[in-house]
Amino acid sequence: MVEELRRRNYDPDPVRVWKKQQAKQSGVEEEAEQEDDDDGNTGPAKIGDYDYLLDMPMRSLTYEKKEELLRKRDAKMEEYTILCGKTPSDLWREDLNCFLVQLQETEDAESEEPKKITSKLPMANKGKKKMLAAEVMPSPKGMFTFMF
Questions:
Q1: What does the DSSP assignment read for 14-67?
Q2: Domain, as residue range, for 93
Q3: Residue 56 gets which letter from DSSP?
Q4: Considering the entire predicted model, what is its pTM?
Q5: What is the dihedral of CA 16, 17, 23, 25, to 10 degrees?
Q6: Alpha-carbon span 83 to 77, nearest angstrom
Q7: Number of H helices, E strands in the chain
Q8: 7-30 pLDDT, tens digit each
């Protein structure tokens, strides 16, 4: 089965290939080689390289699913090309603008909450303010001494 996939030029698992490349670049080549040996795959055509195809459920092998995946791929490739055209400072400004919009929405929502409460009970809030002020005032019987 694996030989047939290889003969028809199907790519090995792209995630596994990417991980191997990352491991080689970061200097962890020995761990990547040990991981390959632990898979139990032998010979030039490894079964683990094509697991993403062999383990695929049959219901995902429809024409509609294929077209949906191709549309998603095209959208991601377009997004990728747009991101490649931006500088890090452009990305930072874009993130900052999104943050400022969210912050403004949150602050507006928080500022509307107290207005709703005060509009419902205008008389009750006035009495509470006087009670709160009395609670934080110093006691007339209290003693204050300076310690130097």
A1: HHHHHHHHHHHHTT-HHHHHHHHHHTT--SSS-GGGGHHHHT--GGG-SHHHHH
A2: 87-130
A3: -
A4: 0.42
A5: -160
A6: 10
A7: 7, 0
A8: 888 888 888 888 888 888 887 555
Say whether pLDDT at 136 is over 90. no
Residue 44, domain member (yes or no): no
Domain count of the fold of the chain: 1
Q: What is the rounded CA–CA span in Å between residue 73 and residue 61?
A: 16
Dihedral class, residue 94 (left if φ above 0, else alpha if ψ from -120 to 50, else beta) = alpha
Residue 42: band (very low, low, confident or very high) from pLDDT cuts 50, 70, 90 = very low
Q: Is residue 91 part of a domain?
A: yes
Amino acid at 108: D
- Tokens linked to 12: 């090995």
Among 57, 55, 75, 64, residue whose Cα is nearest residue 15: 55
Tell me the pLDDT tens digit for each residue of 126-135: 566 666 766 7
Q: Give domain status of residue 118, yes or no.
A: yes
Q: Is 100 inside a domain boundary?
A: yes
Structure tokens at 123: 């008389």
